[in-house]
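User: Earlier you gave me the apo prediction for this protein. Now I'd like the version with nicotinamide-adenine-dinucleotide bound, so I can compare the two side by side. Same sequence as before, with the ligand SMILES added.
Assistant: Got it. Here's the input I'm using:
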Amino acid sequence: MDTIGVLGAGAMGSGIAQVAAAAGHKVILCDHLPTALSKASKGIQASMKALTERGKITDSEAYSLFSRIQFADHMSAFRDCSMIIEAIVEDIDAKQIAFKSMEAVVPESTILASNTSSLSISAMGAPLRHPERILGVHFFNPAPLMKLVEIIPALQTQSDIVERGKKLIDSWGKVTVIAKDTPGFIVNRVARPYYGEALRMLDEGIADIATIDWAMRDLAGFRMGPFELMDFIGNDINYAVTEVVFQNFYYDPRYKPSFTQKRLVDSHFFGRKSGRGFYDYRPDAVQPQPMQDKVLGAEIANRILVMLINEAADALHWRIASRDDIDLAMTRGVNYPKGLLAWADEIGIATVIERLDALYVEYLEDRYRCSPLLRKMHRQGQTFY
Ligand SMILES: NC(=O)c1ccc[n+]([C@@H]2O[C@H](COP(=O)([O-])OP(=O)(O)OC[C@H]3O[C@@H](n4cnc5c(N)ncnc54)[C@H](O)[C@@H]3O)[C@@H](O)[C@H]2O)c1
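And here is the structure of the complex with nicotinamide-adenine-dinucleotide:
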């Protein structure tokens, strides 16, 4: 079996190391901080304990999984790795330096992969002697539980590297999709309106958080409403992703962040983890109740849904990923009840366009522009499937 290297033993790196070791690989988990390594070791052991207690794996499987992970404080330990996945701080300079240092110790055939959520993979390859082996492999948090991995070839990546990387990660029981090296890849781009349009309706006073969450959960069938989900992800993290996507898309108004969420972050109302966010998680807090007005609920659900569909259609229009991969990413990566493009067919492309155009006419904002792909498909009487 190939030896897999993981650089950065934080939340993502330790989860990815566990996934690779569970698939039978020897794993070198490297971090420059000894405290990070001991925290990762304890975290993986706790995860093994939880799995054995729930009968998911036996004691001996847990023991051999853990013994396959070697903890290292220097990259020289990576010398026999056939793939290294970098999961250090989200900073392009730090990542470029790390990849250059790796290149000095590994053979030319080693795949150099990054778990970045927002940085350009092509920029990571630029300083390398062999940039053709750079690859984005974007796992979701927590890596052992989340099925989806986005595979992102850089401009420089050779096709056999993409195939090797994808095959390897498929063999770990993950669902892989291929995405173009563009801001937010698939999921973090297509999912933006779920938060952004909900915040917009809240800010306009169309409905309160409990009613919007109720509409999206109980009427549209999502697992969590947007505000519960933002509190669960952490408003600090969710806001930062929105801001990065907005900046990287040259300030396209479609991705504009919200002052309301920014003020929560400013106040350290991060959500569940800090005890307060959109909701109050303190023990005696009284929770707001939804209005459960079906007409209002349908208006909310339809508005968020067509904005999501528009985003998915536009991602296809700009060839960010294939139709199947866009739908797979949203159903397997963020548990959407249906693929958005399949959902568009179900609602009818004409209805989707009509709802988007009604928003555009109301606001006269570029944010509500309908994707040219939807218009073209409508003209030609096409459906996505
Ligand atoms: N947390 C998430 O939800 C999530 C999801 C997907 C992708 N990501 C991406 O994964 C990467 C890591 O995120 P995280 O949340 O695990 O971060 P984290 O802060 O939990 O862990 C980062 C680790 O990298 C180590 N590190 C930093 N610089 C290093 C260097 N030069 N050499 C060796 N080790 C170094 C740190 O000591 C730390 O242990 C980021 O690129 C992030 O954007 C995060």
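For your comparison, keep in mind: The chain has a mean pLDDT of 97.
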